[in-house]
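Exercise 7 asks you to align residues with tokens for two separate proteins.
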Amino acid sequence: MSTTRLLLLGVVRIFQPAYGYQLRRELLTWNVQQWANINPGSIYTGLRTLAKHGFLEELAEGKGYKPGRTSYKLTADGETEYFSLLRQALWTVDGFQPGLMQASLSFLWSLKRDEVVAALESRIVQLEQHEKAAPFNERQILQDPGTPNHVVEMFRIAVARDRGELEWTRSFRARVLAGEYSFAGELPDWIPGPEAAEQWRNLPEPPD
């Protein structure tokens, strides 16, 4: 749920105020249904749930409005929750929820560069600790007579993912230190082209 919540709050924060249909369409262009396991049909429900909990404000268009024509913007609590979830996803290594880091990458630009560097250095330390502990954890699995033989391969694939993430994190940190990308308080390194801007100005009606 934290991955979904971060994505929904983050995309609302970018385009607010924005219609539910807008937000759903944007998230689908990010392929969130694949790497974040978000059911496209649950996006509207997630937006309404966040509004119910006070993180989003619903701006309805008259009586009998459709969910797709309800627009949303972050409340003060929503802004706080957004940064809390973003920092949690960035600073915490969780091999069982790789979507968290994927989601945080979408919004790193809203943090300052020095914090991103510090968080990446923290992730490197955590991943290095996982790597050091891996042989002993594997040995424990192999020596446990109550553990089926195939379970060790489940552990090994998790270790391989950690190893790959460690290599990527080191190289990403080096790129950030070298001045690549843009972060809070800096000039943007990417501006949407006129075609993208036009797409957001002229929205089709949402489906029934």
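Second protein for Exercise 7:
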Amino acid sequence: MPEVIFNGPAGRLEGRYQPSKEKSAPIAIILHPHPQFGGTMNNQIVYQLFYMFQKRGFTTLRFNFRSIGRSQGEFDHGAGELSDAASALDWVQSLHPDSKSCWVAGYSFGAWIGMQLLMRRPEIEGFMSIAPQPNIYDFSFLAPCPSSGLIINGDSDKVAPEKDVNGLVEKLKTQKGILITHKIVEGANHFFNGQVDTLMGECEDYLDRRLVGELVPEPAAKRIR
């Protein structure tokens, strides 16, 4: 997969990019965990997500947030990292103007950035939030959440406790017009140690079902005049 360097808001950003053979293929962008706690685009879960989308014909990008690897800039507590993600999506879209839709998948800190990106970009039609941390990050911006997606976490996660993730899911599930799918990996911690295959199996199943038109909200019933 080609190594790429593209311009971000705080300097160059380093990524790995795999274009689809189809001009109009959807785009997938994968966002890594917290830069100050060892998160990089080479994280095993980030890599597996990248490969999952690539295998299904998406044009796929993962990249290092500012200050990581060969990406320039300093850590910016989320605001700058969101700008990085928006620039990354702009860059891919500039190369693939015929692509009309996009997915975003984020893990941990990347899940928080991904959900914010979702609010800004109407072309994002699906998301995967893996081990989001509503106990640490404010998700109240999801008002309303514009797209259907998957939230998945482990029931032994001490970093993002299950009760907090459940609270976020319940809040999102009250919204009309979208369908939130929530999966729990039994025995998994925040890093899915020994459970990455199970996690990826759930993600693959969700994506495959979405790609054939399942797991979308019921259309609103027409009112009889």
